[in-house]
């Protein structure tokens, strides 16, 4: 059976009519065999993308209908069903619909600088109202109320949009209902981006021409706080176009910028490099925060560069930081979503060249290993579990002295620490939607700490003098890049082949108290040996692993404990003698006769050209052969 289309048509019926939007059904889904009337439903319409008769900001609308396929004998019942529905002659009452707009967050960027100038348009009963426009923000704060005068049949409340109405208390005196975050999308049922905090109230009028005034203010109850921002610096910052970076600086603002709410800025910095500048500043912002954490605003961070002697300051990127997780209390009780400073960012222990973490497959159980592939036919070294790390004990005869009292880890230290001492927020630039192409991308990272404090006198989380007065340190580590150095037989060095690399953030290591407690020279313990995976941009899988330990020492500590000699022991000369007696259970080459001509070939690793082999046991049957052969 063909599909059924319900079209919303503009214009007179006939050739001049224009289809605006539609709903589509499969005929099989509309067949009614229950014998009962199908329910009345609100149906969301979809724009006809081919005709494109609606502007981008126009809502497609909904249609309240009862739709079903029934035999022609059910005509009488259909006529009776129409009498059950409200019509133009049904009694109705006048109401005022109050739409309370609080704030929005995470709106998609529509400008090339990664920002947007958003406003909210609400349509009800064919009447559209708009909120005020906020400038250059993806997280606007409105706190406005839009009032609609509507008539609703007194016997049917189904005409209300139940997905938006948050309260059905039809009283003249009312309190603003608690709002809810709603996801935003271009079309019904399709994914989008951004959320809107909104609530609605329906107020009955005493007489039709009564004017219902909106509440004076819908702002929540506020409290005086201070926002502390410790700006460590920016990392991996990208310039705009071909103009190199010169002197980047940061700007912080909360809410709409005005004469009484001016943004805070850091000083410009190009040390150690413009792409990785350090600011080392502590910024305190007096702020009014809501007692209810649900209404907490977002901190807007903007990165600018200083060019042409300060005459040109282009915007490099922006990011917004949710302060809901920074409030330890909400309405006098503990905030369930509160995250302590320095615990919001987790280490990326996977491939840094892949967007998002790679979810490892679960390890197979012992029962599955017995019934599955057990590695039969492979050499013993290849059948060994590659994830197993051999333990080094103090009584091991081959244990080097520098490994005594030193723990060997199966993974990296970041896997055990999990969270970084500083918070890291990605900075974005570009647009996601609009007429231009998709250019939204990450252009750097901000590293620092953000928390809410009660007064200016509270001490900072870090000693700023330690940050502002750099001290010399000695860093000892094994080489963290691995190469396959190969000299060819034609006496020509053809270069080294890059295999993989791993990166260690020295800032996170040094400022993490948990890492500092790993190993104390005065107590005879040492830094653990960690196993780090090597990655390359051309592959998503690991290229091997590297064992190392890292020490960050002051000059005094470095003098007191000289560098450990981890060189290999001197090369000694040995003679390897191999005796090959017999072979058995060898898979025959000829399955029909089960006969094979067998011999054994042996060679030392990296010396394939000096391979030796036994004589040939001709016509060996059932995979059995005798050699009694000696080689050295």
Order of strands in the sheet with most strands: 15-16-12-22-21
User: Which shape, going by the Cα principal axes?
Assistant: flat
* CATH-level-2 architecture of the largest domain: Sandwich
> Number of domains in the coordinates?
5
Q: Tell me the strand percentage band.
A: 25-35%
Name the helicity range: under 10%
Region (Disordered): 378-402
Membrane topology: Single-pass membrane protein
GO cellular component, one term: membrane
Keywords: Membrane, Repeat, Transmembrane, Transmembrane helix
What does this structure look like?
It is a single-pass membrane protein. This protein has 632 residues and is mainly β. It folds into five domains: 4-83, no CATH class; 92-204, Sandwich (Immunoglobulin-like), CATH 2.60.40; 222-345 and 420-470, C2 domain (Immunoglobulin-like, Sandwich), CATH 2.60.40; 350-355 and 396-417 and 471-568, no CATH class; 578-631, no CATH class. 8% of the residues lie in helices and 32% in strands. Strand 7 and strand 8 (127-130) form a beta hairpin. The model is unreliable at 154-174, 357-364, 366-372, 377-391 and 478-494 (pLDDT under 50).
């Amino acid at each position: 059976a063909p599909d059924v289309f319900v079209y919303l048509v503009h214009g007179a019926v006939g050739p001049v009519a224009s289809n605006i939007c539609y709903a589509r059904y499969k005929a099989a889904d509309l067949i009614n065999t229950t014998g009962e009337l199908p329910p009345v439903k609100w149906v969301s319409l979809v724009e006809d993308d081919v005709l494109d008769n609606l502007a981008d900001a126009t809502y497609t609308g909904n249609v309240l209908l009862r739709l079903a396929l029934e035999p022609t004998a059910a005509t009488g019942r259909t006529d009776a069903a129409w009498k059950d529905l409200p019509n133009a002659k049904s009694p109705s009452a006048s109401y005022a619909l109050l739409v309370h707009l609080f704030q929005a967050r995470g709106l998609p960027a529509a400008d090339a600088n990664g920002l947007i100038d958003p406003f909210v348009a609400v349509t009800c009963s064919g009447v559209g109202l708009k909120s005020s426009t906020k400038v250059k923000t993806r997280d606007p704060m409105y706190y406005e109320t839009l009032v609609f005068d509507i008539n609703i049949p007194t016997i049917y409340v189904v005409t209300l949009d139940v997905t938006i109405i948050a309260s059905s208390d039809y009283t003249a005196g009312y309190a603003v209902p608690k709002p809810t975050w709603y996801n935003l999308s271009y079309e019904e049922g399709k994914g989008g981006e951004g959320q809107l905090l909104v609530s609605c109230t329906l107020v009955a009028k005493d007489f039709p021409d009564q004017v219902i005034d909106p509440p004076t203010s819908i702002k929540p109850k506020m409290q005086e706080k201070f926002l502390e921002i410790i700006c460590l610096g920016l990392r991996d910052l990208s310039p705009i176009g071909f103009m190199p970076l010169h002197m980047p600086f940061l700007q912080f603002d909360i809410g709409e910028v005005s004469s009484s709410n001016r943004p805070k800025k850091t000083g410009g910095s190009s040390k150690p490099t413009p792409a990785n500048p350090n600011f080392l500043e502590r910024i305190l912002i007096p702020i009014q925060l809501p007692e209810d954490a649900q209404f907490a605003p977002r901190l807007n961070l903007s990165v600018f560069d200083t060019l042409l002697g300060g005459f040109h300051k282009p915007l490099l990127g922006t990011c917004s930081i949710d302060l809901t997780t920074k409030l330890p209390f909400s309405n006098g009780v503990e905030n369930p979503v509160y995250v302590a400073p320095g615990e919001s960012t987790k280490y990326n222990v996977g491939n840094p060249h892949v967007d998002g973490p790679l979810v490892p497959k679960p390890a197979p159980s012992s029962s599955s290993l017995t019934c599955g592939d057990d590695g039969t036919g492979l050499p013993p070294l290849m059948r060994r579990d590659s994830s197993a790390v051999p333990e080094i004990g103090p009584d091991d005869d081959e244990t080097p002295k520098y490994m005594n009292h030193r723990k060997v880890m199966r993974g990296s230290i970041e896997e055990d620490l999990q969270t970084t001492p500083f918070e890291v927020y990605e900075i974005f630039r570009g647009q996601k939607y609009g007429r231009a192409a998709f250019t939204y991308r990450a252009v750097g990272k901000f590293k620092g700490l953000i928390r809410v404090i009660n007064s200016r006198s509270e001490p900072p989380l870090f000693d700023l003098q330690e940050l502002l007065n750099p001290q010399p340190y000695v860093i000892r580590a094994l080489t963290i890049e691995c190469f396959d150095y190969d000299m060819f037989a034609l006496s020509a060095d053809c270069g080294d082949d890059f295999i993989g690399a791993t990166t260690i953030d020295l800032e996170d290591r040094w400022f993490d108290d948990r890492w500092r407690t790993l190993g104390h020279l005065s107590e005879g313990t040492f830094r653990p040996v960690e196993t780090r995976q090597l990655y390359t941009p051309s592959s998503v899988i690991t290229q091997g692993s590297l064992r190392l330990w890292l020490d960050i020492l002051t000059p005094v500590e470095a003098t007191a404990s000289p560098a450990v000699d981890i060189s290999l022991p001197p090369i000694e000369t040995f003679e390897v003698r191999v005796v090959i007696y017999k072979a058995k259970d060898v898979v025959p080459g000829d399955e029909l006769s089960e006969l094979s001509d067998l011999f054994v070939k042996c060679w030392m690793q990296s010396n394939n050209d000096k391979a030796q082999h036994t004589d040939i046991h001709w016509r060996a049957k059932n995979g059995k052969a005798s050699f009694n052969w000696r080689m050295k």
